[in-house]
Amino acid sequence: MKTKTVFSCQNCGYQSPKWLGRCPDCNRWNSFVEEDFTAPSAKTKERVSLYKDEPVLLKDIEVKEAPRIKTDILELDRVLGGGIVAGSVVLIGGDPGIGKSTISLQISNQLAERGITVLYVSGEESVMQTKLRAKRLGTQGKEGKLYIVNQTDLSLIVEYVLKIKPAVVIIDSVQVIFEPTISSSPGSVSQVRECAGILTQLAKSSGTSIFIIGHVTKEGTIAGPRVLEHIVDTVLYFEGDRFSIYRILRAVKNRFGSTNEIGVFEMSSEGLREVKNPSEIFLSEKPKDVSGSVVASILEGSRPLLVEIQALVSKSSFGYACRRAQGFDFNRLVLLVAVLEKRMGLLLEAEDIFINVVGGIKIEDPAADLAVAVAIASAFREQLILSDAVVLGEVGLAGEIRSISQVALRINEAEKLGFKRCILPQTNYKNLNYPAIAGSRSGRDNKGTIELVPVSNLKEALEIILRR
């Protein structure tokens, strides 16, 4: 049989009979690679038929609340929505060396020690290398049923799963796994898409939970077609600098839980450790008596976090002001600078402005607007900020301070860490109903409570926060 060739986009999976400079689907340049195309064989059709279910009426379906499998890693269970769902497929992505394989081996060990059968498929390392890495992490596997295999042939991996019948399977990684019936090389669009599809069918039919590790491209997306993220049930991303000790695990897709939760880990010689109080860690090195440093309370899912926001304002030497933001939206920064110029009269058009969120956190919460604006004004005027104050509020285009959500949780977190004042929107102050801090509405009538200072506009906030 004559083999045909097609050109596939390595970013989105679009196929064309001829080479194209730019993909018409995702507009990516130079992403087409020539691949062999053959019709599905009888073996593939037979395998697909094994996972075929008959249609049933909706009224006849019995819904049973299946218990989740706890990993005993609390930060991971939080991100997953309470644990591992039977038959789910979880994709873990992140930069090289950020801890994907490390946390996968830790998950395997935690489950195996509780008598849960786990199959760890290492396609990039031999069994001996995996054993050495497990020994370094303190994962010996003496008590549990943790199987390790070095295999890249997907047909053999499926046979291992059907034979061992594990509760959890970990594939490290999907870029090196290949389906023998497809002639293209491992890591190509066809291979990644087909392998992910077969693994998903296997998980749904057998009830086995499968973790798939995926590499990340230079653009920060999962290597392979975008359809890979649509196939799986949950997508987890590791964030943070690989040379930093802190890692943030974020869910960007979760069919069985919230996508707003994050897990914070610390990388050590013994693997990833949970950070149970991230706010205290992020503020541990906060400088004292320095302008441009503000503490804000942001919300990640149901968890309030206190983070330090730093601003640096310096005279531009090239006639064109530079704006840079690390961990904060650039467009939002430009908007806040414009509000400070128009509403507050700050002459920032000839100033370079740099914003940094300490700890590698990426802020999407609008409650940090006021803190960023205060940090810029403090750095520009060289005025210190009240060291015992936490700042909350969204800034509008007219300079007004708008209300935010879950203000009671944020205030409670600030009070735990010893902050004495909380600058918050006037609307939230009027509607606040929180017994633990109710006595502080009139100032510091009750000892040990935090003082709430309401503000209605940016000018009022700067007069209160900046020390003369």
Summarize the structure.
With 468 residues, the protein is of the alpha/beta class. Helix content is 28%, strand content 25%. It has three domains: 1-42; 68-276, 3-Layer(aba) Sandwich (Rossmann fold); 283-465, Ribosomal Protein S5, domain 2.
Task: Describe the 3D structure.
The structure is a single chain. This protein has a 9-stranded mixed beta sheet with strand order 6-5-7-8-4-9-10-11-12, with helices on both faces. Strands 13-14-16-15 form a 4-stranded mixed beta sheet. It has helices at residues 42-50, 74-80, 100-112, 127-136, 154-164, 189-206, 227-231, 278-282, 330-344, 369-381, 407-416, 426-431, 458-465; strands at residues 4-9, 15-16, 32-37, 89-94, 118-122, 146-149, 168-172, 209-215, 234-239, 246-254, 262-268, 271-274, 293-300, 303-315, 323-326, 351-357, 389-391, 394-395, 401-402, 421-425, 451-455. Helix content is 28%, strand content 25%. Residues 42-46 and 435-448 have low confidence and may be disordered. The chain folds into 3 domains: 1-42; 68-276, P-loop containing nucleotide triphosphate hydrolases (Rossmann fold), CATH 3.40.50; 283-465, Ribosomal Protein S5, domain 2, CATH 3.30.230.10. The longest helix has 18 residues, at 189-206. The chain is of the alpha/beta class. α9 (330-344) packs across α10 (369-381) and α10 (369-381) packs across α13 (458-465). The chain has 13 helices and 21 strands.
What's the helix and strand layout?
Elements: E1 4-9, E2 15-16, E3 32-37, H1 42-50, H2 74-80, E4 89-94, H3 100-112, E5 118-122, H4 127-136, E6 146-149, H5 154-164, E7 168-172, H6 189-206, E8 209-215, H7 227-231, E9 234-239, E10 246-254, E11 262-268, E12 271-274, H8 278-282, E13 293-300, E14 303-315, E15 323-326, H9 330-344, E16 351-357, H10 369-381, E17 389-391, E18 394-395, E19 401-402, H11 407-416, E20 421-425, H12 426-431, E21 451-455, H13 458-465
Parallel strand pairs: 4-8, 4-9, 5-6, 5-7, 7-8, 15-16, 17-20, 20-21
Antiparallel strand pairs: 1-2, 1-3, 9-10, 10-11, 11-12, 13-14, 14-16, 18-19
Helix pairs in contact: 9-10, 10-13
